[in-house]
Fold this sequence. Notes:
The chain is mainly beta. The chain has strands at residues 3-6, 9-12, 17-23, 32-38, 45-51, 57-59, 67-72, 77-82, 91-98, 113-114, 118-123. The strands form 2 sheets. Strands 2, 4, 5, 6, 9, 10 and 11 form a 7-stranded mixed β-sheet that branches. 35% of the residues are buried.
Amino acid sequence: VQLQASGGGLVQAGGSLRLSCVARERIFSHYRMGWFRQAPGKEREFVAAITWSLGSTFYGDSVKGRFIISRDIPKMTVFLQMNSLKPEDTAVYYCAADSAYSGSYSRTEEYDYWGQGTLVTVSS
């Protein structure tokens, strides 16, 4: 599955951004879609995940209550609405697809398809 992420940019602290991730091929009902982020010098961090069929959602502790993951099935698109942004949210954000849906939703190793990343910069 080819994934293309977009929507990143520069925003002031407290602001909002919405990221989009479009799949260029069919996403099957058993897939799980996720967003991860990686700040300079840090490991890739789990942000949020959603099951494609039921829309069950999962969030990392650092974004819980501020970010919302959703999907548009006909458009094969996953969104990440980011509210109350903080400077520590600055990172490259990646969308990913897990075609096996068998392990932990927060582990990068579970995802076998990745988008190219979109940069989010939050100024203080």
